Amino acid sequence: MTGAEAAERRKALGYTQAALAKLLGTSSPTMARWEAAESAPEALTRALGSLAPSPGGGRGPYRRAAAGKAPPEAPSASPARQRRREGLTPPPVPKARRKPAQAPPPLPVRLPPASEVQEAEAVGAVLLEDMSAHAERVAELLGLEDATRHARRVLPPPRYPVAACQRCPWKRCPVPLVAAPAEGCCLWR
């Protein structure tokens, strides 16, 4: 018996590959390989010869094959289209047309940064006074004797422009512009 004949006999009895594989103690892929082979193994041939028809009559296409009915022909149109023709389903509603995407509003124009450096006396004199008063109050609270000596540890770094130090190897120090380039350099104290 060939593998194709074994498959036809299995379908006629109403068994699926998985059900027959379970009865024979093998796996479904093994059953599929046996049915695809040119000759079926002797165990499969004996089992198909001695098996009674499936008690449930099979399921799906196996039941139809056991009953001897021909499979239905494929319809020319899709099932949804046939239902629409018969009036069982309303016609599809066309999708609403989308509005074309609008461009986002333009961003506000940025002004170029000021290229001039302002003097510390004009801009930060009040800030420097407030910071020194703050440093004195912190030194008093911490019990420090000399507020100016510890002001660098207490005060935040200056927020005004810095100058390039001529003696600093990186040519950049947190020295205010009002000071000379080498005064108060972080590396050359």
From TrEMBL:
Location of the region described as Disordered in the Swiss-Prot/TrEMBL record: 33-115
Bias (Low complexity) ranges: 63-80
Gene3D superfamilies per UniProt: lambda repressor-like DNA-binding domains (1.10.260.40)
GO molecular function: DNA binding
Regions of compositional bias (Pro residues) in chain numbering: 102-111
Cross-referenced InterPro entries: Cro/C1-type_HTH, Lambda_DNA-bd_dom_sf
Top-rank taxon: Bacteria
A Pfam family it matches: HTH_3
Every HTH cro/C1-type domain range: 8-41
Protein name, as recorded: Helix-turn-helix
Taxonomic lineage from the root: Bacteria, Pseudomonadati, Myxococcota, Myxococcia, Myxococcales
